[in-house]
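Hallway conversation turned thread

IA: we were arguing at lunch whether anyone had actually written out CO dehydrogenase/acetyl-CoA synthase delta subunit end to end. Turns out nobody had. So, for the record, here is the sequence (448 residues) and right after it the structure tokens. Reply here if something looks off.
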Amino acid sequence: MALKGLDIFKLSPKKNCKECGSPTCMAFSMKVAQGAVDINACPYFSEDAKAQLSEATAPPMKTVKVGTGSEEFALGGETVMERHEKTFVSKTRYAVALCNCMSAEEIDAALAGIPKVDYERIGERMYVEMVYVNYSADGATDYVELVKKAAALGRTLILGCTDVEVAKAALAVCKDGKPILNGATPENYAEMSAAATEAGVVLGVTGADINGLYDTVKALEALGNKNLVIDTTGATVKETFANTVRVRKAAIKDGDRSFGYPSIVNLVKVAKDDMHLQSALAAVFTIKYGSIVVMQEMTYSEAQPLYGLRQNIFTDPQKPMRVEPGIYPLNGADENSICLTTVDFALTYFLVSGELERSGVPCNLIISDAGGLSVLTAWAAGKLSAGTIEKFWKEQDIEGKIKSRKLIIPGKVAVLKGEIEAKLPGWEVIIAPAEAAQLVKFLKDMNL
Ligand code: SF4
């Protein structure tokens, strides 16, 4: 049961010293109760008080860590149902599935396909972060050998295996990479829990229906294992969606900590061989509440819309997406190439740089610090002006780095031309078209 602000206030130091950033202990207590700040932001709460409050003020969903090194991922830790209430914190991770029931050729093709998707978008690496290795008792391929091959890719593994002995053998060859053992059922949970605990890995809980899942999680918690993820995959798409939403709702809205774990959604089970449906469902479960989404394959066709969606969902809507201010040479530009400038709002940057690349004209795109705002908003807010450009030119020593003295400015702020020329003597300021889509023709017509 979540604590109220008054309960927290009763245990607070009542110094009203403001060191936590809140004007009073009461205000701080209210924020802690809403989950808006961590209780440790106050240095004066006694350890005793913190211990009393920690269970009740902990996030409704546990944060679980899997993988190691650069492949370590945090899952869960969410506090809200909707992203507009507060930022979602742990982005959905995508896995591609292998199975020992696949032929050797199919396995090789799948393994070769996984590293092919690997690119950067707005400073974030987009690639298949996890590999799901499914065990089928009828599979002709040796499961442990398959796990070894999958581990060689260097991605975090999920072992989909409900056979305790096979799972132990597989863990023996991959436990150092901190995989997930997705194999606890109502029948085997005690042995699986012991195997996962001994290997130091997270245990995935599966069940025939949501009630079975709940009972198994409760039983595992009674054994002392809270290092869990919940496989919400049902027999159909409808059931999978209902399970995934109900688990999240139970944790966040109803405060039921037994469902307060990250989820795995296995689309291969509910939409096998239908990549169009899997792509659509992966988008759905990125928004509604898959911590890990397992797919049959990930090519650029699936990845580009999906990763773009994920990047938008798992960002703070109150903080604009920005790119690093600086000089971006495009199309083999050098110090003599013409310059263009625009703002650091990520969408503006990608639109403009995409059109510039399409033009093939060597040019230096100079991105100034405009607080991550779009051109007109930055101009209206005083973050894009002749003064800010002059300041940026000095800070970055643009004139020391670039010999060209031609600068194209966004058409929407044509009004700045005269002021910029006054602030940057020797520069010829040229006005670009109002829309980025017109840049290719504009640059080509300049015959640079
Ligand atoms: Fe109260 Fe602690 Fe905040 Fe000081 S830092 S105002 S004692 S809650």
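OS: looked through it. The longest strand covers residues 93-99.
IA: good, adding that to the notes. The mean pLDDT is 93.
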